[in-house]
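I have been asked to look over a protein record a colleague put together. Thanks in advance; the entry in question is below.
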Amino acid sequence: MVAIPSSPPASREVVRTAIVPVTLSGGDYRRAHDAHHVAAGLWDQGVDWVHGEWKVKHNPGKYDIRAFLTSLPREQRPLCAQTTEAIAHDLHEAIKTSRTNRKNGIKVRSPWRKKNCRPLSFSKHFGRRVRSDNKLNLSLGRAIPGIVLGLPAITDSVTGELVSPELWGEIQLCWDQDNRQFSLHIPYSSRRMFSAGKAVTAIDEGIINPMALATWVDGQTINVTIINGREARAIKRQRNKATGRLQSKMSKTKNGSRKHRLVAATKRTKGKTRLQLRDFDHQVARKAANHVIAHKTGRLVAGDVRGIEYKTKQKRRMGRQQLSQFSRGTQVLYLAEKTGLDIEHLNESGSTKTCPVCAARNCPSGRDHRCKVCKFTCHRDALGAINILQEAIHGSYVPIGADVVIRVTYLRDALRWSPVQCNTHRMVQCRKAITLGSAKNQASAGETLSSKAKLAISSTSSLERVPLAAVA
């Protein structure tokens, strides 16, 4: 089997993007709002022009699209030239991606849908500048007042040091439709630790447990890490229930009612859930990356579950709903970025039904696999990861042997409190507050009594010092 080499992990410069919510003044808010709609109009004009060129058998490239958009009259594109060029490049990349997907058998269309909002791009020295009063000025074009906001403080997530604005890349001003706010997407370079070695790690992906990773440590031991993902299911279930209640209320509204409040509440719910799921996916990818880097993996193989939501039968509506909310692609993308490895995909059919010791076929009904032939017992997701690992190394589900030790480690995606722990902590804090309040009351009562006693003593002593003649 593949042994772990002694070479240390490698480091590499990568580009990270910091998302910073910003608050704009009234005038800047209106200018940014109008500029986003103008950028969407330029995108629509570019799409229409490209489709017109295709009809006459022309295939315009990236620079052709850029030349068309930048040649429009000034009143049709009151934006910075750099922002217009970014729109042309994005359109070309979207067309290129659609063609690649069609070659791979994925049924997609080239860009055709009309857009209502597009982000604004600002490059260094041309689209943005830092003023002398430590303010960030974003240019919207010639003779148009720019957007002025406070200079955001970007901190490197690894070193904890501030990233100078001179090291920023091309930033974007984006509109979050759900959370109803603007945010800056600021890319910067950072050094990350990556996996460097010759070991092979296999991944079994799922909904309850997003990732189960298996790696041979030596010829007699397999380390398996299972990352629990029930928190994501709870977040999605809460979002679906909340949006369902709001949709039910909106269906009963009439013209002239306050339907906009229900729409705003729905968007806030979706925006909050999106941020929670983004954090969850990063937590899962980080736990998986720690396993990959610790075992010095040089080859990363995952079971191929791409397109599984389209292959599920229509009658299994609940299964299709869960699979449609499966964020497998995002987690795999984050894992590839954090490890610096390209992820291969293998056919995983039968991986959770095949015993890795005797190769017998079983039909597990729960989360544990119990072989009816050799009585081997193991977690179902760990079993799938082990079989995928064997297929990646040998080309088939080769038995590992009865004397192999399987070490399974269970991890939560994030160290958060459960509802029971939250309630317990809340009760303890309430008891402490009651105890502290009663102690303060007792202390204040004692201070009141002591002050009255002191006043009585002082009054008595003053009477004793008064002369008898004065009293008479």
Notes: The first strand starts at residue 10 and ends at 22. The chain has a mean pLDDT of 82. Residues 10-194 form one domain. The chain has eleven helices and 17 strands.
